[in-house]
Design brief:
Helix 11 packs antiparallel against helix 12. Helix content is about 45%, strand content about 25%. It is α+β, with helices and mostly antiparallel strands and about 550 residues long. A hairpin with a 3-residue loop joins strand 19 and strand 20. Keywords: Signal.
């Protein structure tokens, strides 16, 4: 058992290397080989150091120490200062892949497997095979152990394998990159054909759906497939990587892609580089959560989106018509609401831009939700709001609407204000004794605010948005979730030892999850960034909760034993 544990990680890596698709075959000719994909693992010393750092942050130093102790004998013979990788290459007709491990003493590494598969068998030409559950062929060349699924794949190994990984090992602990432009056209066409065939098999006419509506829906699906086909043809490469930044106290995942210059996607990227927004006031650093998205829409995307929206309109009409729970009045109101809503979206999309902001503001026993967006016609949004009210105005507890209750910077505020029943304790903790809902309507904007100080806070974000309008943004999309205001809010609603402990772990600092992006004329990168303080807060809360559970179980056992 002990020997099995020692060799587990090697077998795991080996199985990953040999479990290739059926299309991956050996290369026997001298055709030029192009790299289709690579998988990169940073030098073991870096990966181990980052794992130990994260386990220390999570107050589980023992896990990091255990990993270090267990990995020591398992990495004998490996050069811990060079990367490990897998490369998939093609000559345009077939694929082959090779994994490579930097070694200082290959025999020391292989001795761990002897109890499992016996001694290596010499296959000639410097190639050996390990007869495990799947045969593993390997060959050592100038300090690298190359691994493959068959002998032929090792006939022409890369002279400088680490160079094939480019900057991935230095930028990330673990990463993978696919060069889509190097996938042979034959296989790309096969993939697209199979995708189309699969969709056709699953696309069926729904009960009650007219031939016209079904044809329109089929057209929408075909448009979506065409968009995906364009992505496959225009994206040159796609990479994903995970890394740890100890100095900044963060761990992050990057998703990056490059596109062909002059392509439609490149035009869209260039169009949105340094884009501006009229709703930057929603990006409030002290909020519990914010989301901001702005982009310009290419003409061909406008046409496709409008077609999809109109197809969605017809489907919504059909569902309303077939809904047995709606009476005639409610059905008419719902139909008008869908019609107005889709018209609003269509006209906004035709304007060629999408611009919105959203934030959730939390404080002890207070919550406010704020949202604002560009619309082509604010009056149309107001008309849709009136249709919604027609569906609830007959309710005995509906408080009514104060039309034009206030205004600010050309935005009219319509307010619904009603008491929160004393029986709704949780709602009262969130909103107090009164719930306030504000709809703000401007000529080209619409706003919604719900909760404490709804009008005052909405005025503030409108002012801040006006002051930030026209300034180029580094990222067309930004999302931020902050741990401290969330924990403080939860603690004010229902105090508990785990939440208090998590707050104490943060001290005076906040910790956030952020998602943002970066554009160039031919590339886009999205980063998901997590402050390690979030990891620590979660780990502390879990530990305290576990201690409470164990203490309760011990107390119950003691009571049962009396």
């Amino acid at each position: 058992m002990k020997q099995m544990l020692k060799s587990t990680w090697i077998w795991f890596a080996a199985m990953a290397l040999v479990a290739a698709p059926a299309l991956v075959q050996a290369q026997d000719d001298a055709a030029e080989m192009k790299t289709v994909a690579v998988v990169s693992v940073a030098p073991f010393a870096k990966v181990l150091g980052d794992v130990q750092y994260l386990t220390e942050i999570a107050d589980h130093d023992e896990i990091g120490l255990t990993v270090a102790m267990m990995s020591a004998p398992l990495t004998q013979g490996i050069d811990k200062n060079r990367p490990i990788g897998v490369v998939v290459r093609t000559d345009g007709q077939e694929f082959n892949y090779v994994g490579f491990i930097p070694v200082t003493n290959l025999k020391a590494l292989l001795i761990l497997l002897e109890d499992q598969v016996g001694e290596p068998q010499d296959m000639g030409d410097g190639v050996f095979v390990l007869e495990g559950p799947l045969p593993i062929y390997y060959k050592e060349v100038e300090g690298w152990a190359f691994v493959a699924q068959d002998k032929a794949s090792l006939a022409d190994v890369p002279a400088k394998p680490a160079a094939l990984l480019a900057n991935l090992p230095t930028d990330y602990d673990v990463a993978a990159k696919v060069n889509l432009n190097n996938i042979p056209e034959l296989f790309r066409d096969m993939l697209i054909a199979q995708m189309k065939s699969g969709i056709e098999l699953t696309l069926e006419q729904e009960p009650g759906e007219s031939d016209e509506d079904f044809a329109q829906r089929r057209q929408m699906v075909q448009l979506q497939v065409a968009q995906l086909e364009r992505l496959l043809n225009e994206i040159e490469d796609l990479a994903i990587g995970w890394n740890v930044d100890k100095e900044a106290g963060k761990t992050y995942i990057d998703v990056t892609y490059n596109v062909a210059p002059g392509s439609k996607i490149a035009e869209q990227l260039a169009m949105n580089k340094g884009v501006t927004s009229d709703f930057t006031g929603f990006m409030i650093n002290s909020s519990a959560g914010t989301l901001h998205v702005t982009s310009k829409i290419a003409p061909e995307e406008i046409d496709n989106t409008v077609k999809q929206l109109n197809a969605g309109r017809q489907k919504a009409f059909l569902e309303i018509e077939n809904n047995p729970d709606l009476d005639e009045k409610a059905r008419d109101a719902a139909t008008r609401l869908v019609d107005l809503s889709i018209d609003t979206f269509v006209e906004t999309i035709k304007a060629g831009k999408f611009d919105m902001g959203m934030t959730v503001d939390l404080a002890p026993n207070k919550m406010t939700f704020l949202m604002g967006a560009f619309v082509a016609d604010g009056k149309r949004v107001e008309d849709g709001f009136k249709e919604i009210l027609k569906m609830v105005e007959d309710q005995p507890d509906f408080p009514g609407v104060k039309w034009n209750a206030d205004s600010h910077q050309g935005v009219d505020f319509h307010v619904i204000e009603g008491p929160v029943p004393a029986t709704e304790e949780e709602a009262r903790k969130l909103f107090g004794e009164k719930l306030i809902i504000v709809l703000g309507i401007g000529e080209k904007s619409a706003y919604l605010s719900v909760g404490n100080d709804a009008i005052a806070k909405l005025k503030k974000v409108i002012d801040d948005s006006l002051s930030g309008a026209g300034q180029p943004l580094a990222s067309p999309m930004t999302m931020v979730v902050s741990a401290k205001p969330i924990l403080e809010f939860i603690n004010s609603i229902d105090q508990s030892a785990p939440i208090v402990a998590a707050l104490d772990s943060l001290s005076e600092k906040d910790a956030q999850l952020t998602i943002n992006g970066k554009l160039t004329d031919t590339s886009a990168m999205t980063r998901i960034n997590l402050d390690t303080g979030v990891i620590k807060a979660i780990a502390v809360a879990v530990a305290v909760k576990q201690a409470e559970t164990e203490a309760a179980a011990e107390a119950e056992e003691a009571e049962d034993g009396q």
